[in-house]
Input
Amino acid sequence: MSELVSIIMPSFNTGRFIKKTINSVLNQTYKNWELIIVDDCSNDNTDEIVNNINDSRIRYFKNRSNVGAALSRNKALKEARGKWIAFLDSDDLWEKDKLEKQIKFMQVNGYKFTYTDYRVNLNGKWMPYINTAPNKITKIKLYNYCYFSTITVMYDREYVGLIQIEDLKKNNDYAMWFEIIKKTPAYRLPECLSYYFRHENSISSGNKLKLIKYHYVLYKKGLKKNAFISGILTINNLFWGVIKKIIYKKGVDKYENTL
Output
C-alpha cells in the first residue's frame, strides 16, 4: 500500500467547487498520491484557489488555449508518475477511504482496471439511488454501455501503459476505457465511494438528441468505425442504457445524508 497514485483532474471555470474537491483528495486515508490538475484556460478564480492550497503533492498546469477535457486529460496522463491512475473531476467528491479501499481491492484480487458504485447529485439534490454496474465488464459489455462514472475508475498504469485519446467533446472518457479494456477486463468494487455532481448547464445534462450524436461521434471518430457500424452501435447503446437505468440501481432513502 505504498505505491504512488496519480489523480487526473481537468478543470474549467469550477472555482466555486474545486476547493471542496481538492479537500476530498487531501482528506484521503491513503496519502501517497499526486494530484495533477490541468486547467483549460479558466477565466474565474480557479488559479487563485489552487495556488492558495499549500501541498507539494498538487501539480498545477494551465493550457495556453482552451482545448477541451480530452486533450487536458491527455496532458495530465503524460505527466503522471504513479503506478495507479485515478480520475476526479473538479466538481466531484470521493469518500475519504476511496483510494485505500480500491487499491487494496485491486491488489488482493490481482485486478488491473476497476470501478466503484457512485451516487449522483443533480442541481443540489441527491438522487434516491446509488448507481451500480455489472461485477465484470468485458469489451462486449463496454460496447453495450458505459456502466461506470469516470470518477470511480482506477487502473494500473504500469500494466496498461500510456493512454491517449481522440479529441472528443463528449465521451472522451468512454473512449479511454475502450483502450484499457483491450488489455484487461474491468471489475466492480461494490461500494459507493464516489459522488458525481451534475449541474444544469453541463454537457451531460444536454438534450437527448445531442447525447445520441455524441455517442455516434464516439464510435465514428473515437473508435474509427464506419458510418453504418457507428449507427448500429449507437442504437445498441440506447437500448442498454434503458436496461441499465432499470437494473443497475440500489435504492436509498432520499433523505439519507451523504458526505
Summary: The first strand starts at residue 5 and ends at 11. The chain has a mean pLDDT of 93. The chain is about 35% helix and 25% strand.
